[in-house]
Amino acid sequence: MATFELDPLDPPRPSAEASRRLAGLTEEAIDALQASDTDAAPPSDAMLERAVVARRLKRLRERLNFNQVEFATRYRIPVATLRDWEQARRSPDAPALAYLAVIEAEPEAVDRALGGA
């Protein structure tokens, strides 16, 4: 299969026909097309929440200078679960969010409570 790379500084231009079709679309038609295309649809509130949690968790882990395996081991979280959370594939449940908030606020206290992990 032949492949090629697009130059981000010189993107392909739409054809004259495509340009005319696009210019003739109303806002309502654009909204309808976007809503029908799951790849172009805006993210849901749940997706946005997962992304916020993922970013916050990754920043916490990096602030504590741990890689994923070290963080997961230290705080007794399955590595696969941590990866799912950080990659926004899954959201932590309420108890896990509370646990992460305690780790964020008092990591040394969590270490002591876990026996020095």
From TrEMBL:
Chain positions covered by the region annotation Disordered: 1-21
Residues spanning the signal sequence: none
GO terms for MF: DNA binding
Domain of life: Bacteria
Keywords: DNA-binding, Transcription, Transcription regulation
Gene3D superfamilies the UniProt entry points to: lambda repressor-like DNA-binding domains
Record-annotated HTH cro/C1-type domain positions: 57-110
Designated name of the protein: Helix-turn-helix domain-containing protein
Naturally occurring in which organism (per UniProt): Jiella avicenniae
